[in-house]
Amino acid sequence: MDHRLREASISGDVHSLHQLLQEDRLLLNRPTYCSDNPLHVAATLGHADFAAEVVRLRPDLARELDVGGHTPLHLAAANGHAAVAKVLLGNSSAGVPGHELCLLRDMDWLTPIHAAALKGRTDILRELAVGACPESVRATTGRGETALHLAVRSSSFEAVEFLVETVAAAAELLNSKDDKGNTALHLAMARRQLQTMKFMLSKPSVDVNSVNRRGLTPLDVLLESPNEQYGDMALGEAIRAAGGKTAAELKLPPPAAVLLPRASRHQKPRVKHDEFRNTPGTLMVVATLIATITFQAALNPPGGFVQKEDGTGKSNPASKVQADADDDRSVRLQPFLMFDVIGLFASLSIILLLICVSPRRKRMLGFLSWIMWAAVLSTALAFQCAIVQIYKSSAVVRYLSFAWSGILCVAAVWIFFRFAVFLLKRVGWWKWRRHGHAGSGGLLVVKRIGVVAALLLAAGATLFLSYFFLVVIRILPLMSLNRRTFPAYLPAPAPAP
Questions:
Q1: How many CB atoms lie within 10 A of CB 360?
Q2: Residue 85 · residue 127 · CB < 8 Å
Q3: What contacts 69, CB < 8 A, 6 or more positions away?
Q4: What pLDDT, in 10s, does the model give residues 472-484?
Q5: 375 near 343, Cβ under 8 Å?
């Protein structure tokens, strides 16, 4: 909106408006995106003459919404400007009748009568409910609340009194329920509004023992959280005098929502396991942790680094023996370094993909989860190799190593099974539980060939890992133990020639 037009709207100067229109006849015809129009400003500040002139020149501006989704009538109703509301409601030209404006909703699904009830504007309620649009009284909010519910919620006794005494549909309003099954009497009782409650109880059409969705009457609502500080005694006596009873006294069956098994009331709600995995944040944290561990392990291998040359340039038997020992040690550390590097590169790949691609689809997250499995298994293998090399003389560690190898074998088989099921579902060789199909034609044949090749490759990798777990890491080091550990299972040394 033009700044000069805004200044004229704020001041309500009709003469300035005409001067601006003489300079630019299309000033009011220019669209305003995500901004107020002059009628919004005039309705907010209560400039009835200015609003009447704008409505005369551009009547369709009365339907436009501001940034908050409010029409000019919403703003006039909330601020209590009855003169502006009368101008807007009297606008019936250009196909914009006043009763249509009464039913327009804002972003909170409120009509102008709801805005007036929330602020307790009885003069606006009279213009809307009695004059221009009586049917707007029956309009409900997104939570099923009527204007009477909102008047009680705002603690406006004048608005409640006006709606009940003046509106023709007063009996319907008194017994109307919101989405939770609460009537206006339930709300008045919950908020300890003694005057409002006594006034509504004086009406013969009110249902004193109305039950909400929780199976509570207004008296139950009072007894649910007693507090003598707010006059609960007077409230209870008043509703008892009007015939109010509890749900137990009425012998009403509990609602379906309350009929729960006894054990389930104390059980924690079940949460899907998938909510805690295969998310970008979880994968990033785990990948960063694995990358840190494997990087530190690569720089500090078990036993540290050794220098083969003694620096003297001379060869002696002791240095030769030490060099042979170092060569043997480097050979034994090769599996550790290999799996440690695999875990490091796999975790770094996950971090790089999460940073560059920012995946949101389940397929991409599933692919990253498989890489995460590879990183975890590789880190476990590197740990296994390091432990065996450091504590190779301890029989207890070897027993624990054998048990850990069995666990890793089971994990490898389980991952292979999950991977196989994942691939078989993609080509229609496994029961497809979701809505989808594997495709048809030559592309399906190519997919199935690729799946078979991938399964063979995965099966070979699983067998290799299992062999490495049980044989290379566990069995071969076991054969290097001396006879003191297992004298009955190791052969006697051959006699010297």
A1: 8
A2: yes
A3: 106, 107, 108
A4: 554 444 444 444 4
A5: yes
